[in-house]
Amino acid sequence: MFGKKANKIIALFIIGIMTIGFAGCSNQTGTKEGKTEIEKIKESGKIVLGTSADYPPFEFHKEVNGKDTIVGFDIEIAKEIAKDLNVELEIKEMSFDPLIMALQNNKIDMVLAGMTPDKERAKKVDFSDKYFFGKHYIVINGKNKDSIKTLEDLKGKTIGVQKGAVQQKIAQKEISGAKLKPLVKVPDLILQLRSNKVDAVLIEDIVAKSYVENNKDLVLPGIEFKDKEGGYSVALRKNNKELVESINKTIKRLQKEGLIDKYFEEANKMSK
Ligand code: ARG
After folding, report:
1. From which residue to which does the signal peptide run (predicted)?
2. What is the pTM of this model?
3. Distance of CA 71 to the CA centre of its chain
4. How far is the CA of 265 from the centre of ligand 1 (A)?
C-alpha cells in the first residue's frame, strides 16, 4: 500500500519507539517496573542475605536457646544493614561457590560470607566498601615491653615471620630496616621469641591473640598492620547504586561506633 521504501521507514520508526521505550524503563538503578532495588526491598519488608555458614567466627551454626541458628560477625553486620533499611533480615544458607550466581538470579539480595572483593568477582557483582580488614599483630617478649612500643622502635630489629605468608611481605614493606627471619612453623617463631632469638614476631589477628593468651610471657604492644589486599565486602547485584550507598553508610556508622571490633570479639568468643 505504501510501497517498499515507506514500509522500511515505518519499520525503523517502530524499532526506534521500542528502543526509547525500553531505555526509559531500565535506567541505571531502575528496573523494568520502574522501581529501584532499594524500593523493592523496602516494599517487601525484608532483605535476603545469602551466606555459607561454615566459616567461624564470620558465620557458623550454633545452638541458641535449644535451636540451631546461624550466627557470627557477618550476621551481626547484616542485621545492622537491615535495621538501617527498616526491614527484616532473612537468611538463606547455601554453599560458598554459587553465592554470586544466586545474587545474579535474584535468589538473594546481598552476600556477606567473608567474601574478598577480588577483580574476577567484581565483573559480575558490585561490592560495598570493606567492612573487615585482616589485621596482623606484632607480638613481643614481655621483657621488652618498655623498649618496643611503636613501629619506630622496630627499626632494624629482627622480626620473625612465617615463610611464604603475607606477613613476610608486610613486614618487609612496613618495618624499615627490619631483618626478617622466616621460619616454616608458627610455634617455632614463638619459641624463638620466648628465648629472645628474635625481637618480635608478626602474626595474624586471632592467632596472635591466642598465643598471647596461652603464653603469659608474651605481649601485644599494640603495633598492628591492616591487610590492604585482603578484607571482606558485601556483594550486591550490579547497577544498584542506592543500595551500595546505603550499605556503605551503615558500615561507616558501625566503624565510628566501634561496633565492628565489638562484633568481631563477640563472634570470636561465641565460636570457641
Ligand atoms: N575470603 C575468601 C574468599 O572470598 C574465603 C571466604 C569463604 N567464606 C565462607 N563463608 N566459606 O574467597
Report:
1. 1-23
2. 0.76
3. 16
4. 19
Q: Is 96 in the pocket of ligand 1 (CB under 6 A)?
A: yes
pLDDT at 227: 86
What is the C-alpha separation between 258 and 150, in angstroms, rounded?
23
Q: Is 113 in the pocket of ligand 1 (CB under 6 A)?
A: yes
**CB of 230 within 8 A of CB of 160?**
no
Half-sphere exposure of 119 (CA within 13 A, CB side): 1
Whether the bond between 57 and the residue before it is cis, its omega within 30 degrees of 0, is yes
User: What residues contact residue 216 under an 8 Å CB cut-off, 6+ apart?
Assistant: 142
CA neighbor of 135 nearest in space, from 36, 226, 28: 226
Distance separating alpha carbons of residues 110 and 91, to the nearest angstrom: 10
Q: Which ligand 1 atom lies nearest to the CA of residue 51?
A: 10
Please tell me the distance from the alpha carbon of residue 228 to that of residue 213, in angstroms, as a whole number.
26
> Ligand 1, closest atom to CA 52?
10
Asked if residue 178 has its Cβ within 6 Å of ligand 1, the reply is: no
Identify the top-confidence range among 5-9, 212-216, 243-247.
243-247
Write out the H or E segment, with its range, that includes residue 16. helix 4-25
User: 245: CA distance to ligand 1 center in Å?
Assistant: 23
Question: What CA–CA distance (Å, rounded) separates 136 from 106?
Answer: 37
Looking at the DSSP bridge assignments, the partners of residue 189 are none
**55 touches ligand 1 (CB under 6 Å):** yes
27 pLDDT band, cuts 50/70/90, is: very low
